[in-house]
Amino acid sequence: MPPSNITIKKIDSPTEVDVADATAIFCKLMLDDPFFVALTGGQSHLLPVLVRGLIGDIAFKAGDMYGALDEHGVMVGFQAWTPPGNSQLATAEDKIRLRDFFLALPSDESRAYVSQTIGVEFPKLQDVLSGIPQCELTTHWCNFNFVKEEYHKQGISKALMDLAVQKSRENGWTKMGLATTNARNVPIYERLGFVNEGYKLMKTPINRCPVWIFIRTLD
């Protein structure tokens, strides 16, 4: 159970401030993550530009955003989910959110790599490892799950996820899924009821990135 000063809730009408706060939490935790290092070509100043677009797509159109707020209303953690039938950056209109990021990339080659990775290769990897065709599209998918480091191990991630589980149950969705590129998250997701469906060390132009895919089946 989270501390008594933390409020866990669905953010019903996310704002640009909510997206910016979530982006800041993500970037502080994931600056050295190999997957996002590859997507940004190692240019760390591009990370918030990319992530703001990705989170914004979910918050404003594709899915749901859940937040953990302290007694001052400051976001200390968040999750972003897409329901079955929706996926991140599904249309050309959605991809406009990444326009600033793509314009900042240094070459056509880097833009092509990002488009291919986000749009084709990573979804294909999810399908192969999970054994579920169009895995992200057919499950209740967790795209982001991040809590400020000083609030780790306080039950916040579980409390946020309980809201997503509740929505799955209310809608009769039996499969929930997520991916991680950090080994320390593997036992955490297993404790949250997810099954590790597979692992692959993905090659990128500048590094190697571990990927784990998890699925939770609701009774």
UniProtKB/TrEMBL annotation:
**GO function term, MF aspect, one:** acyltransferase activity, transferring groups other than amino-acyl groups
Q: Which Gene3D superfamilies match?
A: 3.40.630.30
Q: Which residues form the N-acetyltransferase domain?
A: 85-219
Q: What is this protein called?
A: N-acetyltransferase domain-containing protein
| Source species | Daedalea quercina L-15889
